[in-house]
Design a protein that fits this description.
Mean pLDDT: 93
Strand order of the largest sheet: 3-2-1-4-5
Number of helices: 11
Structural class: alpha/beta
Distance between the termini: 26 Å
Order of helices and strands: EEEHHEHEHHEEEHHHHEHEH
Bound molecules: 5'-O-[(R)-(carboxyoxy)(hydroxy)phosphoryl]adenosine, zinc ion
Shape: globular
Number of strands: 10
Radius of gyration: 20 Å
Length: about 350
């Protein structure tokens, strides 16, 4: 079954054709990130306007890349939430219109479920490095129960997946999302938006122990997170340095960025591994924009393997928002609705 997945929950416009929930036939993503950079975050109105311009060309390119046409697609899948209302409306209304015109079923998908399903997608392995091939080939099948960590700009959630469509929310952040923390700390350090990749870049080859930062809630007996105390500690360090030196040196920024990255990764890994042990998980899945972080991927893999639990990390291009994960989620829980019943749901959760 070939599904066209459409994703427009934030600043990306993604369209992708996926066969049987796993085989990636195309994946096209247009991002308006450059337009938001000068504001240090996504400007919803700007994002939605861009999406209205690019949605049709992006869908067309995804169909062309998959060497298919809408007439030959079995179903459409679209992100209905959570996300920015204007952005969601662009994808939802486009999917509904195409479904009506081409008489195709359309499946509404929760964006957060989508991030989980990035782990099910296998790829055309041509042109990939040997080490990467080994990783990607082992992506499928995935055994249940699985514990999943979803870390993005808007969410930090720990999920127990007993089967497709059988999902329990174990806990989440009580304040900032992990990606939001990366973005805010990057801004404090004078780094560019989005903060995650910027912090990862400057944190390379410096001392991750230069600053001893707090690890809020790390040993509490629950699966919740809190990052605002960590962010406040960074504010204090920046203020102290400004008082002392009047500016932030490159090495100060790198050391603080690296200590922050180390700390947040430690918190995420500790809680995820504890959830995996508690629920006797056969797999640990990672998903969301922050899942692109190399330290998080490697630390989770190391601690998972110490317990004999395989850790799945989607390929980097499927960690950012994309239509492929939406198509895959729709395949494994195939519940189409009449187009007139499908609405954007900005506040949707698990
Ligand atoms: O999932 P996503 O593309 O959008 C949302 O649904 O929010 O996630 C975007 C977030 C941003 O906060 C960005 O800073 C973070 O993911 N991010 C990273 C990395 N790449 C993106 N955080 C840490 N390390 C990265 N390499
Ligand atoms: Zn996302």
């Amino acid at each position: 079954m070939k599904i066209l997945g459409i994703e427009t929950s934030c600043d990306e416009t993604g369209a992708s054709v996926v066969e049987d929930g796993a085989k990636l036939l195309s994946n096209v993503i247009a991002s308006s990130v450059l337009l938001h950079q000068k504001y240090g975050g996504v400007v919803p109105e700007v994002a939605a306007r861009e999406q209205t311009k690019v949605i049709i060309p992006v869908i067309q390119e995804a169909l062309d890349e998959a060497k298919t046409r809408l007439e030959k697609i079995d179903a459409l899948a679209v992100t209905v939430g959570p996300g920015l209302v204007g952005s969601l409306l662009v994808g939802v209304e486009t999917a509904k219109t195409l479904a009506l015109i081409f008489k195709k079923p359309v499946v509404p998908v929760n964006h957060l479920y989508g991030h989980l399903y990035a782990n099910w997608i296998t790829q055309d392995l041509r042109g990939r490095k040997k080490t990467e091939k080994k990783n990607l080939q082992s992506l499928y099948p995935i055994f249940f129960p699985a514990v999943a960590l979803i870390v993005s700009g808007g969410h930090t959630d720990l999920i127990l997946m007993r089967n497709h469509g059988q999902i329990n929310w174990l806990g989440g952040t009580r304040d900032d999302a992990a990606g939001e923390a990366f973005d805010k700390v990057a801004r404090l350090l004078g780094l560019s938006y989005p903060g995650g990749p910027a912090i990862e870049k400057v944190a390379k080859s410096v001392n991750p122990k230069a600053f001893d930062l707090p690890r809020p809630m790390i040993d509490e007996d629950n699966f919740d997170f809190s990052f605002s105390g960590l962010k406040t500690a960074i504010v204090q360090e920046v203020k102290k340095e400004m008082k002392r030196k009047k500016s932030l040196s490159q090495i100060f920024v790198s050391n603080l960025a690296s200590s922050f990255q180390q700390t947040i990764v430690e918190i995420l890994v500790r809680k995820t591994i504890r959830a995996a042990q508690t629920y006797k998980a056969k797999e640990v899945l990672l998903g969301g924009g922050v899942a692109a972080n190399k330290l998080l991927r490697s630390q989770l893999t190391v601690y998972g393997s110490q317990l004999g639990i395989p850790v799945r990390c989607p390929p980097i291009e499927l960690c950012i928002d994309n239509g492929a994960m939406i198509a895959s989620a729709a395949f494994f829980s195939f519940k189409p609705l009449p187009p007139q019943k499908i609405q954007a749901e900005p506040g949707l959760h698990f």
